[in-house]
Specification:
By secondary structure, the protein is an alpha/beta fold. The protein contains eleven helices and 14 strands.
């Protein structure tokens, strides 16, 4: 081989490498511009919580465990970590970034000086699905994902659907950003009661291991978070419920115009949950709760709520926990969001019902942590934590 014949492929390789580095630099500059900047991590790792061995045809299997990864920033500014629990159909990856490669809420709150613990629900992500213990699963088809989570304006099933503008792509099968989101989807338990029991127990085990924490729950995970707070009220220092406190007691189906809403009957007999929580006075059974439906909705674009008849029983274990109910303008959860706030009010539980549209933040859907303005929304949460949880932290520190 002559020197010249050797140089030509090397020069081509060098040019390709330069081009690749240039592209990478351009991408990383863009990500830094929209992101949180460099992060210095003091410690990171993972562990599993919950679970036990149960009998199966081939012998005992471990089931009921959740996977948790964590990062602790070098400059830890807050005594309470944030525990992030994803909602339906995804896994913990929904907190770690966006379909178009921007920083996620995990990076944002690490940059703010919070330790972050991210849970993969039982049977999701890196917590393997154990068929013999969990029963049949329920995969999420792409057209279901389009309809339920992204392309609201295309399907027009609820009055606010046309307001959705913040998804970072076309929102349909075949669009690269939709396909990234679809790849995140995980099969789910068909049996919602079993799923709730396992995840509630795993969340309690997590707090027992790490100590006092702030729970950030999205959507489906709200059911677990209310149960976890009921079981460990002293360890829950704040609850950030990201569209995680919708219609209590009854499910509401979205059917499109002109009637929009259909009551599908009792689904959560304990209010927000399908498993028992503590009321005062105590209940012998959830049927002891006397319920009534609103005669008329609060507004034409809202569903009617189910509430307790007075005198209402109280959720005394949740009293004193700072609670944020965060809702997006164009989400399917908006028509029933007010019902969750009203249920807590009636049960004697103070809460901050925060609607992004009231703050001038418009166009978000249910997966607001993945949308174009995700860090602007995270800033709303950070501000709430500063006002509602940080003063309590300071007060606690002064008494030690």
């Amino acid at each position: 081989m002559t020197l010249g014949s050797f140089e030509r492929p090397c020069r081509g390789l060098a040019l390709s490498l330069v081009a690749a580095i240039s592209i990478w630099c351009a991408m990383s500059d863009g990500l830094r511009a929209e992101g949180v900047g460099p992060l210095t991590i003091a410690k990171q790792g993972y562990f599993f919580v919950g679970g036990k061995y149960v009998d199966a045809p081939g012998g005992p299997v471990l089931a009921g465990h959740a996977y948790v990864d964590f990062q602790i920033p070098q400059e830890l500014k807050h005594p309470y970590p944030i525990v992030m629990i994803h909602g339906c159909c995804s896994a913990g990856s929904s907190w770690n970034g966006t379909p178009d490669g921007r920083d996620g809420w995990a990076q944002y709150f690490l940059a703010k000086g919070y330790a972050v613990y991210i849970m993969d629900q039982v049977g999701r992500g890196r917590a393997a699905y154990v068929d013999s213990a969990y029963g049949p699963n329920n995969p999420k088809a792409p057209k279901f994902v389009e309809r339920e989570f992204i392309s609201y304006e295309r399907y027009n099933l609820f009055p606010q659907a046309k307001l959705h503008t913040q998804w970072p792509g076309a929102g349909v099968v075949g669009d690269p950003l939709f396909d990234q989101f679809q790849a995140m989807m995980e099969p789910d338990f068909k049996d919602r009661v079993i799923r709730e029991r396992f995840n509630r127990d795993a969340g309690v085990a997590l707090l027992d291991r790490i100590g006092p924490a702030i729970i950030m729950a999205h959507s489906q995970a709200g059911i677990y978070a209310w149960g976890i707070a009921n079981d460990r009220p002293g360890l829950v220092k704040g609850m950030i419920m990201v569209e995680a406190a919708g219609s209590p007691f009854h499910e509401v189906a979205l059917k499109g115009p002109p009637d929009w809403f259909k009551d599908e009957g009792m689904s959560k007999p304990w209010g927000f949950t399908r498993t028992p929580v503590d009321f005062d006075p105590p209940l012998a059974a959830p049927s002891d709760l006397m319920l009534e439906e609103q005669a008329k909705a609060d507004a034409p674009d809202l569903a009617r709520c189910w509430r307790q008849k007075e005198p209402a029983r109280k959720l005394s274990k949740l009293k004193g926990i700072p609670i944020m109910l965060l809702h997006a303008e164009a989400s399917f959860a908006m028509p029933t969001a007010h019902c969750g706030a009203a249920f807590l009010d009636q049960a004697g539980v103070a809460n901050d019902f925060v609607k992004l549209a009231d703050l001038g933040i418009h166009g978000n859907g249910h997966f607001m942590m993945l949308e174009k303005n995700n860090l602007e929304v995270a800033g709303v949460i950070a501000d709430w934590l500063t006002r509602r949880v940080t003063p309590l932290e300071a007060d606690a520190s002064s008494k030690r």
